[in-house]
From TrEMBL:
InterPro entries reported in the protein's UniProt record: Phage/GTA_portal (IPR006944), Portal_HK97 (IPR006427)
Organism of this sequence: Caloramator quimbayensis
Source species, domain of life: Bacteria
Listed Pfam families: Phage_portal
NCBIfam families named among the record's database cross-references: portal_HK97
Protein name as catalogued: Phage portal protein, HK97 family
Length: 383
């Protein structure tokens, strides 16, 4: 079917006047990966933050650096350092809503794929476990692995369903913006020579080739055969409007807001706003990072330490204070108060500030100024 005949057949009319781009506009769909970009931005923000945390290990209530500390903070396996491992682990947990970590000969290995068989009373079984090109030829019990599940509902599926509506609105807004700046015109074709095959070929070539080159070129001249009249349609409606761009930006911003809401991230923080960054970071740590690290540390403690050892005050704790950048000059007054009140030793605060401890007798002690004393020892009156 020739292009011109196809246009007339589509509109179901025998008119000789056809508006260009009308069919292209109705079928045009603009597909943008805004949802995936927003999700990846959120996951990278969370995984990058947790990779900065220190996985502290304690033995009988005292901080202790041993094999377990080295495993989580330096080298979990031969192919990854701790930052790479934690970022991959958190990314899989958030993106797929679950993550499986194996202990293979003292190395922590993240599974790429697995099958879980669930039971009500007995331990769940993990089979068909794959890492890279390797498939493990055995099954694993729940007590033999670290299994993390982010939430009961699949956040990916929920976001996908929610974003479908936003994508439709986005496609409509982009289509409106493109139409507002497009070239428009009316072509009138004389009916009388329509049976001429040579004339039909010229019309086909005009609509299929020459008009396309004419509209795409910055400067161009087109020859229109006899029997065809083209009238350019210019006016205010053809100019691009700032409001159209604002509509597109608002829809994209709405998608980022919904993704941030799903991952409990302050929307302004995900979009890169720097106003009130301190409050945004505190909100991010409280509602997003802290619940996530609690989930991780609980699974590690119950599987790698166990009830008896844990109750003897030996456990792993994830320190999230490492996430925020600390300027020692801005915290000098608070530093002094913490030492003077006996809350922390000098070495403890030096470590939190990112400096090395002095490891001296006085730096390990807890000090208290004379301003702090037991209220019961204070005497009033002349005494």
């Amino acid at each position: 079917m020739r292009f011109f005949d196809w246009i007339k057949d589509f509109f179901g009319i025998e008119q000789s006047t056809v508006y260009l781009n009308q069919q292209a506009i109705t079928t045009q769909e603009v597909q943008l990966a805004v949802r995936d970009f927003a999700i990846c931005s959120a996951i990278n923000l969370i995984s990058g933050a947790i990779s900065k945390c220190e996985f502290k290990t304690y033995s009988n209530g005292n901080e202790f650096k041993g094999d377990e500390y080295y495993l989580w903070n330096v080298e979990p396996n031969k192919n990854q350092n701790s930052s790479q491992f934690i970022q991959e682990f958190i990314s899989k947990l958030l993106y797929y809503n679950e993550c499986l970590v194996l202990d293979i000969n003292g190395q922590l290995i993240i599974a790429d794929d697995f099958t879980q068989t669930e039971y009500a009373v007995f331990e769940n079984i993990f089979s068909n476990v794959i890492r890279g090109t390797m498939k493990f030829d055995r099954s694993f019990k729940m007590s033999e692995v670290l299994y993390f599940k982010y939430c009961n509902n699949d956040i990916q599926q929920l976001l996908c369903n929610l974003m479908t509506g936003y994508n439709n609105l986005l496609n409509m807004a982009i289509g409106k913006y493109k139409r507002s700046g497009g070239r428009k015109g009316i072509a009138k074709v004389d009916k009388t020579p329509s049976g001429d095959s040579e004339f039909q070929k010229k019309v086909d070539d005009l609509f299929n080739n020459r008009f396309k080159s004419y509209f795409e070129a910055e400067n161009s001249v087109i020859h229109i055969p006899k029997g065809v009249e083209y009238i350019e349609q210019n006016g205010e409606g053809n100019k691009k409007s700032t409001s159209d761009l604002v509509d597109i930006s608002k829809i994209i911003e709405e998608e980022f807001d919904r993704v941030a809401q799903a991952f409990k991230i302050p929307p302004a923080l995900l979009k890169g706003d720097i106003a009130d960054i301190g409050k945004l970071t505190d909100n991010f740590l409280t509602f997003c990072i802290d619940p996530l690290v609690d989930l991780i540390s609980e699974e590690i403690n119950r599987k790698r330490y166990g009830k008896k050892v844990f109750l003897k005050n030996s456990y792993l704790k994830i320190d999230t204070t490492c996430i925020k950048h600390i300027d020692i000059f801005s915290i000098s007054e608070a530093f002094d108060k913490l030492v003077a009140s006996g809350g922390y030793s000098i070495d403890e605060l030096r470590i939190k500030a990112g400096d090395i401890p002095l490891n001296t007798d006085f730096s390990k002690k807890h000090w208290m100024t004379k301003n702090y004393t037991d209220i019961q020892t204070v005497k009033g009156g002349e005494e």
